[in-house]
């Protein structure tokens, strides 16, 4: 691929900035409402030393739902497919990410996939570790390895802000506890989940994580695989079918890159065998996806033929 990312990215960021006016910053987690809705940042990592980046690419933001991809990989590494998929299904829902509806209407009452909140909570409950500190340290170690950034940590203010207001997630967890999908103390699970969602990265970290996923867990400066081949394949498939909330179908058609977004405005993209992409744009559309980030991915996919389809 002839690469003009440097100049193209500048133009593309300028072009998509105007869409931010049509979106809104998430405010159901109070700390997220402090984000600047005009921000747009992007980084692309192709496995060489530098990232191509533009806009607010150094700005730190929390992973939110992007963390679901990473906990899924870790839970699969911890327990294998049989255990994980006894707790969570493999089907897209077409419902908003925090919907409780299918938990009640679907029999057996397990969440339909690991990318919706109910499914992510079930997956988080599987992460190995005697205490939440131990579980979080394992997850942080994993994220630091994938991104090559040892400084990565979680943002306590965002975690606390979500923990205090996470009543909908609590109700999903209580529902699943009643139906035997999870066990243990719900608030202990919520404490871990809100911290996992509050792990803080910038676009470059995210681009490197995307690259590692795109290359079956292999990192260019490591001589071993961080995620087993089969697990990386499985996780990328979920990114295609459920990664962009209930806009995943349209996203597959318009963009066609395995990707996962979060309500902080981050999106990670993993082009199989190709580049990793990290985006930030906190103004969200009505489904919870970064409005400028989606547009930017559409432009990138068209220009560099990145669609896998
Ligand atoms: N922490 C957020 C929640 O559970 C994540 C949602 C998201 O990014 O989609 O509501």
Descriptive keywords:
Probable Glutaminase Ybgj, Chain: A, domain 2, binds glutamic acid, globular, 46% helix, alpha+beta, 309 residues, Beta-lactamase, two-stranded antiparallel ribbon
Explain this structure.
The structure is a single chain. It is globular, with a radius of gyration of 18 Å. A 5-stranded antiparallel sheet has the order 2-1-7-6-5. Strands 3-4 form a two-stranded antiparallel sheet. With 309 residues, the chain is of the alpha+beta class. The chain folds into 2 domains: 6-64 and 201-304, DD-peptidase/beta-lactamase superfamily (Beta-lactamase), CATH 3.40.710.10; 65-197, Orthogonal Bundle (Probable Glutaminase Ybgj, Chain: A, domain 2), CATH 1.10.1500. The mean pLDDT is 93. The protein has helices at residues 5-17, 67-79, 81-87, 101-105, 117-124, 132-147, 156-165, 167-178, 186-197, 203-214, 229-242, 248-254, 291-304; strands spanning 41-45, 51-55, 61-62, 200-201, 259-261, 266-270, 276-280. Glutamic acid binds at residues 64-65, 97-98, 117, 162, 169, 197, 262-263, 288.
Architecture (CATH level 2) name of the largest domain: 3-Layer(aba) Sandwich
Helix coverage percent of residues? 40-55%
Strand order of the largest sheet: 2-1-7-6-5
CATH level-4 homologous superfamily of the largest domain: DD-peptidase/beta-lactamase superfamily
Q: Estimate the mean pLDDT confidence.
A: 93
Could you describe the largest sheet, including whether it forms a barrel?
5 strands, antiparallel
Catalogue the unreliable spans.
Answer: none
- And the CATH topology of the largest domain? Beta-lactamase
Q: What is the N-to-C order of secondary-structure elements (H for helix, E for strand)?
A: HEEEHHHHHHHHEHHHEEEH
Number of domains: 2
**What is the CATH C level class of the largest domain, in words?**
Alpha Beta
Which percent band covers the strand fraction? 5-15%
N-to-C span: 17 Å
Helix-strand makeup class: alpha+beta
Q: Based on Cα principal axes, name the global outline.
A: globular
